[in-house]
Specification:
By secondary structure, the protein is of the alpha+beta class. The protein has a four-stranded antiparallel β-sheet, with helices on one face. A hairpin with a 4-residue loop joins strand 2 and strand 3. The protein starts with a strand and ends with a helix.
Length: about 60
């Protein structure tokens, strides 16, 4: 999965199958803002998990 662009943010994911964790790096105007860490099971994180984390971040930022 590539980067997700939403609400002026760019969300780039990375993950480790071995340690079963990952992170979404949040950028705004090319500047790193923060890292959202997550855990998953299986060979890769489910697309729905990534979408949910991005949606939650965008909703929190708007409030």
């Amino acid at each position: 999965m590539g980067a997700i662009e939403r609400n002026g943010f760019v969300f780039e994911q990375e993950y480790s199958v071995v340690s079963q964790d990952g992170a979404i790096h949040v950028y705004k105007d090319g500047v790193f803002i923060e890292e959202i860490k997550f855990e998953f099971s299986g060979e890769f994180p489910e697309h729905n998990l990534i979408e949910e984390l991005v949606n939650h971040y965008c909703a929190e930022f708007q409030n």
